[in-house]
Amino acid sequence: MINNKYSKVIAGAMTWGKWGAQFSKKEIIDRMHCCLENGITTFDHADIYGDYTTEADFGNAFAESGIARDNITLISKCGIQYIGETRNYNRVKHYNYSKDYIIWSAEESLKHLKTDYLDLLLLHRPSPLMHPETIAEAVSVLKTQGKIRDFGVSNFTPSQTDLVSQFAEVSVNQIEFSLTQHTAMHNGTLDHMLLNNCRPMAWSPLGTVFKEDTEQTRRIHKQLGALMDKYNATEDQLLLAWILKHPAGIHPVIGTTNKERISNASKAEAIDLDLEDWFLILVACQGHKVP
């Protein structure tokens, strides 16, 4: 069975630090409590966020938050060797999935997040040089030592996932998915996860709807506007509800740092879109009827 310990809506921490809001310790604690008050108990990280600084910012705040470790789930990702101030010795952005690096990176995340274990460790992006047996050896060490509970991947195709899962159980694949980026719904990615009890998590779940002013986004806004009164919902809630209706059981990873939007997002789970309304929203995005 798929593990259901992750909150349905997940708080993405990428922009909480240096790469976005640059929250103080007090502000991070405030956002953590806001998430928990709204039933969002899972926090998504990656080692590279904030040029390898955001995990430590979060961990320092968590240590003073008064929040029990058992009341939250923590996700992190590893593998990207990013060129920045903290790793200026890298000559090119690349991926490292050697056994020693995966273990070291996970241990660094534990140290920064001020925790003894990660609920989930993901390989951040597939590398053409990754070897599944090497990855599995690292995962086995980390699980045996109790440093990670579950293992997964991020941005992997079905074949890449199969490659890794032959040697290590892959419980999650975090992919880009939204109304305006829904190729995973047609290229077999979500079908593959549904068949293999692999939990999909979706980054950038609102897509380009609020970022771009195009013919497509104007069609979408018009259709969402026509449904807002029916569902007593905001546009962003309807976009999340559209994702949540998919049978694969997708967990949207929201990137907002706005407390009102965090609260709005948490309420999307209660919205059950009618079948035809779901297709009306899809058609608005596509600009044509389904085949």
Task: Write a short abstract of this structure.
This protein has 291 residues and is α/β, with parallel strands linked by helices. It is built from eleven helices and ten strands.
Give your account of this protein's structure:
There is one protein chain. By secondary structure, the chain is of the alpha/beta class. It has 11 helices and 10 strands. The strands form 2 sheets. Strands 1-2-3-6-7-8-9-10 form an 8-stranded parallel beta barrel, surrounded by 4 helices. The longest helix is centred in the last third of the chain and has 17 residues, at 215-231. It is globular and about 55 Å long.
Class of secondary structure makeup: alpha/beta
End-to-end span in angstroms?
A: 33 Å
- Total helices: the number is 11
Order of helices and strands: EHEHHEEEHEHEHEHEHHEHH
Radius of gyration: 19 Å
- Percent helix range: 40-55%
Q: Write down the overall mean pLDDT.
A: 97
Query: Which overall shape is indicated by the principal axes computed on the Cα atoms?
Result: globular
Strand order of the largest sheet: 1-2-3-6-7-8-9-10
**Major sheet, described briefly?**
8 strands, parallel, barrel
Strand content: 5-15%
Total strands: 10
Which assembly state applies to the chains in this document? single chain
Low-confidence stretches: none
Write the layout of secondary structure elements.
Blueprint: E1 10-12, H1 25-37, E2 42-44, H2 49-52, H3 54-63, E3 73-78, E4 80-81, E5 94-95, H4 99-113, E6 118-123, H5 132-144, E7 148-154, H6 158-165, E8 172-176, H7 189-195, E9 199-203, H8 215-231, H9 235-244, E10 251-254, H10 259-267, H11 275-286
Parallel strand pairs: 1-2, 1-10, 2-3, 3-6, 6-7, 7-8, 8-9, 9-10
Antiparallel strand pairs: 4-5
Helix pairs in contact: 1-3, 3-4, 4-5, 8-11
